[in-house]
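Worked example

This section walks through a single chain of length 378. The input is the sequence exactly as stored; nothing has been trimmed or padded.
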Amino acid sequence: MRVPKRVAVIGAGSMGSQAMWRLAARGAEVIGYDRYAPGHDRGAAGGESRIFRAAHLGESGYIPLLRLADGLWEQLQAETGRSLRRRSGCLVMGETVSPSMRLLLSVSTAHRLDHEVLDRDDFARRYPQHRLPEGHTAVLDRMGGVIRPEASVQAAANRAEQLGARLHRYTPVREVARASGGGVRIVTDHGTDHVDAAVVTVGPWINTLLPDLPRAVDVRRVICSWHVPTRHDWFADGALPFVRSTPHDCFGLPSPDGLSVKIGLSHARHLPVPEPERLDRTVRPEELATFHELIRELMPDLNPDPIRMSAYMEGYTESGNPLVGHLPGEDDIIVMAGFSGSGFKISPAMGEIAADLALDGATAHPVDFLAPAGVGAA
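Given that input, the structure is written out below as tokens.
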């Protein structure tokens, strides 16, 4: 009888919870560790909503990963009986001549994504909540929708436990390293464990646990604000999540209760976080200026004064692409980090890929362009 591989998953958040689920589903002996507990609001899964979209403002290599994730989102909902994603469509807007919008349009056409390019008159008629400046294009991504991040993290972790995984909550990992006799050594405040392989998905704590990563992860303090419409019909006929590319670089989603609109900003407008355990969670009035400007120009039927603000953390890389693959020089340590604000939608795909790498040593899914040491090193 074949003995199942023992695999540690360090960090049971956006990626780690999905990795635990996919590993447990394939019969691995899964041991998870989290410094808090699945669904906490200190990492990158806070804020009650995330956007799922197929029309991606980046490399075409994400399209197969988005398709893989799409099917796994459906599978996770079916296995857990939880409503985690609502398919509503998503609007993507930006300057027509910008590289990101030109790439989005070409990739969407080449991959036959279910999308529609809207002219300004049609856009104004169908989506009066928004203003589209001259020289900008709007694309309706019909595969888009809204994901519930905290519920999704908990659902994936709980499903993994149902399948036999063990999760050590409130247990920070202090060290992960190659063991002298083979495999990986995991050190916590409660002792040392040895496993065959480890998947490191600790989000903002990646630089602390793996300080020698070949590519840097820049941890930033992310702010989101929630605004109530001044028009009673703002949500009439459905209000879609949206992404605005250059030059506005923001996103928004209707709140699940249908009372407000959540708005977030791009990486460049976030402050760095030197120590994740000392995140400044207080949002000051002067930090509202950019939100006020965006609302005045693009969504004037929202009250610029928020009813709620929150701060959490995300990790960014210089390229905007995450680090996914074996830690250079380590056959048994897999790292997933630096998803740069756009990773939650593909998190189930990352869970499947983590399971491939931990159990088989390689994956057939196209992730070479995300390798921690550069292209071709995964």
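What to look for: The chain has a mean pLDDT of 93.
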